[in-house]
Design a protein that fits this description.
Radius of gyration: 20 Å
Number of strands: 20
Oligomer: single chain
Largest sheet: 8 strands, antiparallel
Mean pLDDT: 93
Number of domains: 2
Shape: globular
Helix content: 25-40%
Distance between the termini: 46 Å
Structural class: alpha+beta
């Protein structure tokens, strides 16, 4: 019997996050453990009048490609995926792996090669998402592999996921709408501000946000959500930051990351674990050393690290910076084949100023 909370999650995805309409081409791409959520989501989407395509997204196929494929094969663009990105109305991705570390032994140079090859289609994905042509959402199903990563039992992780997405509430959509209204106050206050300074025990950084509006993220493109974010002016970041949580990418944990910025670019980088991987990602392309995002986590229902960026970047009381491409809706000009979020805690001694006005202290807004 399907957990009623899973049915609620499907309802949120279709009726709130992507707002499926009659005639929409709805693509559901699900990991091997996410089939039940995919079925429920397909049911809601079909009832809403959508035309559903279902894809299996299993990283085992990527492992085969990276281990046995030639450079030409790794750079090959799947025409089906290309068509989806350019033509679909709704694209819902459901993370549900059997093994979260399946790509940890892959040569990062091959992953970089693939990322470079997909850059154009990735840019189209971002462009269509920003314009509203493509309504996309990424979510995550409670499963054993992800529960183990988060150091939880499956039942404990289920409770965590459904609480973080409000799927455990009688009217989950009303809860997301209330969060959206609350966060809009912060977005409105920051409108027109020019400079943000961040000072915590782990950071001393200044960036320009002149002409860069903050966005209100409340479950539409990510589920769960709970953050406000913008894209800094490309040449403005100066200072340093140490990330208090491991940065997870393609099954690799890069721990103890420290970045130093001058005139917008990373000029020095180090890590206590997997430093080589960090540096290879920074050298993927010219835009990889430039910040594409400053985000502030506002979901205080998420208070523990799970090794899943989908949840961790929303931890209430943290901020995150993303290396790589920025958001067109934030007027970003940075182009890159990567967008890699790294998270730092601000709950103990963290402060942020906008144009000299303190607006955030010890992990909470004070405006």
């Amino acid at each position: 019997m399907t957990d009623p909370r899973m049915k609620n999650m499907a309802k949120i995805l279709v009726e709130y996050s992507t707002k499926v309409r009659k005639g929409d081409w709805v693509v559901i791409a699900a990991g091997p453990q996410a089939t039940e959520l995919a079925y429920e989501t397909a049911l809601f989407a079909t009832k809403a009048g959508g035309n559903v395509t279902y894809l299996i997204r299993d990283h085992t196929f990527w492992e085969i490609l990276y281990k046995y494929g030639s450079d030409e094969q790794i750079q090959w663009i799947d025409p089906t995926f290309d068509l989806i990105i350019r033509k679909a109305d709704v694209f819902i991705q459901m993370v549900g792996p059997d093994n979260t570390r399946i790509l940890s032994g892959v040569d990062p140079a091959k992953q970089s090669l693939n990322a470079q090859a997909e850059r154009e289609i990735f840019e189209e994905y971002i462009r269509r998402g920003a314009s509203g042509e493509l309504r996309w959402n990424i979510t995550q199903i409670p499963c054993q592999a992800l529960a183990q990563e988060a150091d939880m039992s499956l039942s404990e992780f289920e409770d965590f996921v459904y609480a973080a997405t409000f799927a455990d509430q009688d009217d989950p959509i009303a809860h997301w709408q209330a969060l959206e209204k609350n966060q809009q106050c912060f977005v409105d206050w920051l409108a027109g501000k020019k400079e943000i300074k961040i000072k915590t025990p782990n950071a001393d950084l200044s960036i320009s946000i002149e002409g860069r509006p903050f966005m209100n993220s409340t479950g539409t493109v990510n589920l769960p959500s709970g953050e406000i974010f913008t894209s800094p002016v490309e040449d403005s970041a100066n200072g340093w930051v140490e990330f208090t949580y491991p940065a997870i990418d393609h099954g690799r944990e890069v721990e103890g990351v420290r970045l130093e910025f001058e005139h917008g670019k990373v000029v020095h980088s180090s890590a206590k674990k997997n430093e080589e991987y960090l540096n290879k990602m920074l050298d993927v392309d010219e835009g990889a050393r430039i910040l594409g995002e400053l985000g502030i986590g506002t979901n205080y229902g998420i208070q523990r690290f799970t090794k899943s960026i989908l949840f961790d970047e929303k931890i209430g009381g943290t901020f995150h910076l993303a290396l790589g491409f920025g958001f067109p809706e934030c007027n970003s000009k940075n182009i890159s084949s990567i967008h890699w979020d790294l998270i730092s805690d601000a709950r103990n001694g963290g402060r942020m100023w906008a144009d000299g006005i303190l607006f955030y202290q010890d992990g909470k807004f004070v405006i």
